[in-house]
Amino acid sequence: MFRFPRWKIASIIAMTLLAFLVIIPSFLAKDVREGIAKKLPSWAPFYSVVLGLDLQGGAHILLEVDAADVARTQVEALRDDVRRILREERIRITGGIGGSGRTVQVRVPDAADRQKAITRLRTQAQPGGVNALGATAPPTFEVRDTADGLVQLTLTDPAVLERVRRAVDQTIEVIRRRVDALGTTEPNIQRQGANRVLVQVPGLEDTNRLKELLGTTARLEFRLVADPGYNPGDIDMLNEYDREGNPTASYPVEKRVMVQGEDLTDAQPGFDQRSGEPVVNFRFNLRGGQRFGEVTSANVGKPFAIVLDNKVISAPRILSPITGGSGQISGRFTVQQANDLSVLLRAGALPAKLTIVEERTVGPGLGQDSIDAGRTAAYVAATLVVTYMLTTYGIFGLFANIALLVHIVMVFAGLVLLQATLTLPGIAGIVLTIGMAVDANVLIYERIREEGRLGRSIISALDAGFNRAFSTIVDSQSTTMVVAIILYFLGSGPVRGFAVSLALGIVTTIVTAVTMTRLMIALWYRWSRPTRIPI
Amino acid sequence: MLRFRLAPDNVKLGFMQLRSVTYPLSALLSILSVVAFLTLGLNYGIDFAGGTLMELRAKTGQADLVSLRALGDKLQLGEVEVQAFGENQDVTVRVRLQPGGDAAQQEIVQKIRVAVGDNYEFRRVEVVGPRVSGELVQSGTLGVVLSILAVLTYLWFRYEWQLAVAAVIATMHDLLLTMGFFAITRLEFNITSIAAILTIVGLSLNETVVILDRIREMLRKYKRMPMPEIIDTSINAVLSRTIMTSTTTLMALAALAFFGGHVIQSFSLAMMFGMVIGAYSSIFICSPILIYLGAPSQGEPDKNGN
């Protein structure tokens, strides 16, 4: 057991040196680190350990896309389709086209007409093309002919799921553009589960602005204010609000939308030339510009409403046709509001309502405090354990302590190389493995002592100690490993950090406490030729 | 160099005789734990109960606990729990889950921000909605159940059934007492507490495995020795190791509990308790069970050949 081939010695030393090298960048100031990193080849792992949001401070917000809202929009669109198709086919219906839940229904009294409508609608339900396996895609809705002349169209589950999936994709894109506008570094935006989006913004302390940016749907519409004598079915009564959120005026706004936010190409905050009031300047795309020009030409003298998420921002009167393709929104904004609105308009509207279901924000002050506290705890723990090992085992204790140091460095290096996130419970995990890492050494040493007491020679006691203790070490560490693995898959954020540190600690323990200590003891044995076991 | 040892060599303590004391003691503690769990329940933190937790630091002087507590009535948020720590400059403010689903929780922080004005720095804000907390309860429970199953499977393959059963009973004992510890001390029970409990399961099994390995080895070596003697000899043989390792791990945990900051204090305290209970149960609970279950037959040597 004490014959170590040179390559083994060399590789142990190389691994240790490598581990030390890997953790160096974590101790450098950020600008120094980035300066050096630029000069190194890109494959060199010259980066710092990733700190969790609980350590560096930042916001963690979990949002849920309202699936019911998505379905509602989808039903709305289906209703429009049905209306268009029936008009094209000149099919007469009685009553309106009803929509509720996932179903749209329409009454077609004439049997032949009904058959025609159903055939046409069924074709419409079939999305074109085939999927990768060559099968035709399932229909997006089912058409049912109830006996009394009622035609029912129901959205299918896969169609709704698919739409929710697309809505989440779109939401992620929109959120990314909005968060980028905040100018924070490295926001992390990712899908979670079927209909959730996780937004993590390091370093962000005041989440109010972020939450406002995330919580606004930002559906902008330009709609005409209806003439007196309107049909109540064709309008929405929408309110205008003051800065405190109290309604100030109410307008009958036509349901028909002239131009909407999609047709904007740009929006920038600015100031009105005459009043000096903060405003948002926008520019339409070609289609939007033409449409806006046509409608304003036909309605000179009438008021129109600029509607954002069903609230009237302002309702100016059309003084002359607006054909330039650009315009200005003013609505008693503060500078900040004008700024935010232009961010929202540039980023586009969310496809569905978002709800915040979880929020965890840590200020940078507390994060730094946690790092400091974790560091103090680690130093105290290490000092206690090192002293205890030295006084109990003497020179062998020293070997164990050297192995312990390398162990900690290796856990850190592992975190850096895996780019795993170090969280506060992660630090706790590392501190815990300081206590546990020496366990393997203790098992070995106690076994050596025992074998020595039984009257074995030094070399044979050392040998037996290492060999017999090994299976116990593996056994006992595997139980903790099992737990660490389960924690990793079940936990999120901080707990996952704990699991990673724990698991890394177990793996490196085997390397350092077993192999490395063995090497040190072998070298020591060759060098000092002891006559008795010094523990 | 100064040398000392906590565990004397060549001890021959009669652990098995002590079971007439330790079994009733453990039974009592277990019953106490169950009763505490059923009557007091756990002090669920916002991870599992949902709600809002804020950590505030007074910008000057000490936090005004009375006026912070009064916020509950003033803003109609129900009971507001305020807890000071450190130099009373820092407080945690906890607001229960408000009726009205996920959206309703969002207004609380803003209301409190407005109410306390500029006197406090908001160092941490956590808002867990009713659905997320429900899911966390599910995944936490699943985690505990899965770990126990995984550990059982591991023991099943690794040991003869008698040893496996003994280990399982000891683990359950530790789990039960730890839950009792949480119920009685009113330590907040959060996701990190689940992590603590699972780690306790791992550490406690670690102790148990070390002793069981030795018992198995002794069984092979001394086929005629009576079971109680085998167990006593084995425990005495690994006792110094158990004491050493428990001490170093406890040192590390104590360092965490006292210096690691309040965020992980309950985590560290629970682990310290679990560590002590784990060492106790592997010596006093797990091993004596083998006397009742009888020695496993020792036909073939194990894969290591000892």
Q: How many DSSP E strands of chain A?
A: 19
Largest sheet strand order of chain B: 3-4-2-5
Biggest beta sheet summary of chain A: 4 strands, antiparallel
What's the overall geometry of chain B?
Answer: elongated
CATH architecture of the largest domain in chain B: Up-down Bundle
Radius of gyration of chain B: 24 Å
CATH topology type of the largest domain in chain B: Multidrug efflux transporter AcrB transmembrane fold
What is the CATH T-level topology of the largest domain in chain A? Multidrug efflux transporter AcrB transmembrane fold
The radius of gyration of chain A is: 35 Å
- Category by helix and strand content of chain A: alpha+beta
The top level CATH class name of the largest domain in chain B = Mainly Alpha
Indicate the percent of residues in helices of chain A: 40-55%
What is the mean pLDDT of chain B?
Answer: 85
CATH class of the largest domain in chain A: Mainly Alpha
Can you identify the CATH superfamily of the largest domain in chain B?
A: Multidrug efflux transporter AcrB transmembrane domain
> From the 3D coordinates, which CATH architecture of the largest domain in chain A would you assign?
Up-down Bundle
**Unreliable stretches of chain B, pLDDT < 50, 5 or more residues?**
299-306
Tell me the distance between the termini of chain A: 19 Å
Describe the structure.
The complex is a heterodimer of chains A (535) and B (306). Helices cover 53% and strands 20% of the residues of chain A. With 535 residues, chain A is α+β, with helices and mostly antiparallel strands. Chain A folds into three domains: 6-57 and 363-528, Multidrug efflux transporter AcrB transmembrane domain (Multidrug efflux transporter AcrB transmembrane fold), CATH 1.20.1640; 67-126 and 138-162, Alpha-Beta Plaits; 216-359, Gyrase A, domain 2. The longest helix of chain A is centred in the last third of the chain and has 36 residues, at 493-528. Chain A is elongated. The two termini of chain A are 19 Å apart. The model of chain A has no long low-confidence stretch (mean pLDDT 85). Chain B is α+β, with helices and mostly antiparallel strands. Chain B has two domains: 19-44 and 133-293, Multidrug efflux transporter AcrB transmembrane domain (Multidrug efflux transporter AcrB transmembrane fold); 51-128, 2-Layer Sandwich (Alpha-Beta Plaits), CATH 3.30.70.3400. Helices cover 65% and strands 11% of the residues of chain B. Chain B contains nine helices and six strands, in the order αβαβαββαβααβααα. Chain B has helices at 19-39, 46-49, 65-74, 101-116, 130-158, 161-185, 191-221, 227-259, 265-293; strands at 43-44, 51-58, 80-85, 90-95, 120-128, 188-189. In chain B, helix 1 (19-39) crosses helix 6 (161-185) and helix 8 packs antiparallel against helix 9 (265-293). Chain B is elongated and about 80 Å long. Residues 299-306 of chain B have low confidence and may be disordered. Strand 18 of chain A pairs antiparallel with strand 5 of chain B, so a sheet runs across the interface.
